[in-house]
């Protein structure tokens, strides 16, 4: 299983970025696909997860600003981030698990098995 994130970069406060997570050897609609982030000196926190039934759960930090979508033909999951804030600065990771992600309670790093290498997002 390989997950490759892209789309990170530097943006000003209030700006937008769209992150992509391209999956190989795993079909995104057969897995729960999650987005996490880790800021310097902090633990990895859940952002959102797309369950196999299409249900999407967002952490409070993401509600109203971030949107998860997917393209099964490209086997890719996206994280659209709008109205970015300085505190959104972090390395963003894509993750996958064969388990369901029924609710926000499953937005835990320990629930996910496969991880990408991360992509840096810097908001200034």
Computed structural class: mainly beta
* Computed Rg: 13 Å
Shape: globular
Spans of 5+ residues with little confidence (pLDDT < 50)?
Answer: none
**Series of H and E elements:** EEEEEEEEEEE
What is the overall number of helices? Answer: 0
The chain-level mean pLDDT equals 95
How far apart are the first and last residues' alpha carbons, in Å?
34 Å
Number of strands: 11
**Assembly state of the chains shown:** single chain
Your description of this structure?
By secondary structure, the chain is mainly beta. 0% of the residues lie in helices and 48% in strands. It has no helices and eleven strands. Strand 5 and strand 6 (56-58) form a beta hairpin. It is globular.
Structure summarized in a few sentences:
By secondary structure, the protein is an all-beta fold. It has no helices and eleven strands.
Topology of helices and strands:
Elements: E1 2-6, E2 9-11, E3 17-24, E4 32-38, E5 44-50, E6 56-58, E7 66-71, E8 76-81, E9 90-97, E10 114-115, E11 119-123
Parallel strand pairs: 2-11
Antiparallel strand pairs: 1-3, 3-8, 4-5, 4-9, 5-6, 7-8, 9-10, 9-11
Features:
single chain, 124 residues, mainly beta, seven-stranded mixed sheet, four-stranded antiparallel sheet
